[in-house]
Amino acid sequence: MNDRYDVVGIGNALVDVLARVEDEFLAENGIEKGIMTLIDTARATELYGRMGPAIEISGGSGANTIAGLAMLGSRAAYVGKVKDDQLGAIFAHDIRALGATFETPMATGDHDFDTGRCMVLVSPDGERSMNTYLGVSEHLSPSDIDESMMERADWLYLEGYRFDGPDSVGAFARAVAACKRGGGRASVTLSDPFCVDRHRDAFRRMIRDDLDLLFANEHEVMSLYQTSSLEAALDACAKDVRLAAVTVGPKGAWVIEDGKRALVPTPPVQVVDATGAGDLFAAGFLHGLARGRAPKICARMGCVAAAEIISHIGARPEVDLKALMAKNGM
């Protein structure tokens, strides 16, 4: 029996609260459009009270990727911190029900912080503005890393958002070391330009020294290399890491492999909600790698998965991803 994992992900464990809003709502509530803003408990309560009807579903960027991988048929596991409360139980049940392993010890019920949640406000143009209460997910620590699990991972997938935590970088370092010790490879997604701004030096150092694959969108990679030129950012990226996938919205994704790059187009789709596009792109890409596909084919798989997710509200697929890939000849 194969006891290895195709991919083990580490990141935030959150419950997403999604609602459609007009741009005026964002302005009236001081919300900057199109980015993720960290908020405290009081702000989370305030915004939730002002939102209209909402959809509540287990989420978190890295968890969305692992959910997508499980739905594609990959052997996947997730590491993220939740509390032993109602939302924590929902999160654990949801991701396990999709076929992913989730064994991170829950924080006890008397912990000072609750299970995290993210208010995702979707504008008419499909852009999402995220207001995130990290809660207990911010307190992921090295002690939450099961080294035996990491040693059995062919790929490790690190969520950039999780750099916002007192012990998370240490947790990442422990996980990467164990993964490499077991013969696996490691990747990271940059998650958000402002996340990059907060941790640029740590990202650059880890990408250059420890990682085999970088996921980013065009804004994140330009922030990483502090340039307004995508061309210059891609050139710099090629010098730091052997393999990278940089998404460029409706144009598709740039794949960088051993210093050479190619643009892989995305299927035409009407954008309903951009939430989770990067997460599912990474799922498709990593699933392809786990199946031994060439990086450009992996990028096609990522683009197909991303196109599905932006065609509806929510960051979890609404179709059979295996059938979707087969329909697209993958």
Structure explained in plain terms:
The protein is an alpha/beta fold. The protein has a single domain, classed as UDP-N-acetylmuramoyl-L-alanine:D-glutamate ligase, CATH 3.40.1190.20. Helices cover 39% and strands 22% of the residues. It contains 12 helices and 14 strands. The longest helix has 17 residues, at 193-209. It is globular. The two termini are 26 Å apart.
Helix fraction? 25-40%
End-to-end CA span: 26 Å
State the CATH class: Alpha Beta
Strand content: 15-25%
Give the helices and strands as they follow along the chain: EEHEHEHEHEEEHEHEHEHHEEEHHH
Treating each run of at least 4 consecutive H or I residues as one helix, how many helices?
12
CATH architectural grouping: 3-Layer(aba) Sandwich
Q: Main β-sheet, in a few words?
A: 9 strands, mixed
Number of domains: 1
Low-confidence stretches: none
Can you list the strand order of the major beta sheet? 6-5-1-9-10-11-12-13-14
Radius of gyration: 18 Å
Mean pLDDT: 92
Global structural class: alpha/beta
Characterize the overall form.
globular
Q: In the CATH scheme, what's the topology name?
A: UDP-N-acetylmuramoyl-L-alanine:D-glutamate ligase
- Count of individual beta strands: 14
The CATH homologous superfamily is called Ribokinase
Outline:
By secondary structure, the chain is α/β, with parallel strands linked by helices. The chain has helices at residues 23-28, 41-50, 61-72, 86-97, 147-151, 168-181, 193-209, 218-224, 230-240, 277-290, 295-309, 321-327, and strands at residues 5-10, 14-20, 36-38, 55-59, 76-79, 101-102, 116-122, 128-133, 153-159, 185-189, 213-217, 243-247, 253-257, 260-264.
